[in-house]
Amino acid sequence: MLRAELVLRRGAMPEIRLSSGLRGAKPEYIYVYSLNC
Question: Which helix (H) or strand (E) holds 29?
Fold first, then answer.
């Protein structure tokens, strides 16, 4: 199971980081994830 972390950057949109080293996710998923955290 992959672990996802929410990364917040100044002046940038939220980014989802996967433990597998891959980056990126659907915008709606990013917003929902940030709200649930």
Answer: helix 27-36
Apex CA 27: angle with CA 19 and CA 11, to 5°? 85
Render 2-28 in DSSP notation, one character per residue. Answer: --EEEE--TTS--EEEETTS-B---HH
N-terminal to C-terminal alpha carbon distance within the chain = 19
pTM over 0.85: no
Domain boundaries, the chain: 4-36
- pLDDT tens, position by position, 2-36: 566 656 555 555 555 555 444 555 555 555 555 55
